[in-house]
Model the fold of this input.
Amino acid sequence: MEQTSEGAAVALITGSGRGIGLACARALAEAGFDVALNCSGVGSLERTRVEADRIRQDFGVQTAVVAADVADMTAAKELVEGTVEALGRLDVLVNNAGITRDGLIARMSEEDFDDVININLKGTFNCCKAAAKVMMKQRCGRIINMSSIVGLYGNAGQTNYAASKAGVVGITKSLAKELARRHITVNAIAPGYIATDMTGALSEEQRTAISERVGLGRLGEAQDVAAVVAFLASPAAAYITGQVIAVDGGLSL
Ligand code: NAP
Done:
């Protein structure tokens, strides 16, 4: 990424102490961005700081670590403001933080529904709102939202998660229309099954069954998703907005 007049471009990745978010932070740092990492709270702060140190050593970029629950609007605002304070500006926001609370609808509690909507969907809204304010002043920016193929096609046992990820697509397309005149692009990625803690509970049998349904014959790696994030954040993607890019090895074909 090119330097701005104020120094290196800056990317904030929510939920980036592990999994896909961490892979995104590393890919963006490799591309030359200073990166702000975020975790959900104090419990994961130390682990996230260790990852930030590693990124600094590996890629020679500046890093910041901010613990914040993205579901909390005030905390999300402070997360964006803290990033600008620590690293000077905000060029790329990756809304990656997300959870699952799976269950068939008969057994899904109201709390399971609300938690998933609050973190996955409202968290995306909260961070978009705070980041858009900064990016509109700059008259440039990139927002990349993590949806899921489950948000496009549904999945039994995931009504809450599917609703949240379909909502993320709605936010992406609406905001792309709203912010295009300010030279801010907004896109979403819809990963299939990616090997992280989120899919860690799958049994060997379930993994084999999924791999058989995936055209490319394997679960994805976090880096498969991060590479697309790095592309969407790059100058090469300047004319792409409002799109949802599936990274699913052909699962949805
Ligand atoms: P993961 O390994 O479970 O990591 C989830 C991340 O989200 C963690 O860094 C976690 O932070 C953070 N997080 C959770 N709640 C948060 C909150 N309230 N505020 C801030 N951060 C919070 O998940 P993953 O597989 O990497 O998934 C990343 C994203 O990709 C999610 O949006 C997920 O829905 C999406 N996705 C994943 C798959 C897949 O197969 N893995 C497929 C499609 C889409 P802590 O470390 O602090 O807990």
Q: What stands out?
A: Residues 110-138 form the longest helix (29 residues). Residues 14-15, 17-21, 38-40, 44, 69-71, 96-99, 119, 146, 148, 191, 193-194, 196-199 surround NAP (CB under 6 Å). Strands lie at 3-4, 7-8, 10-13, 34-39, 63-67, 92-95, 141-146, 184-191, 244-247. The chain has a mean pLDDT of 96.
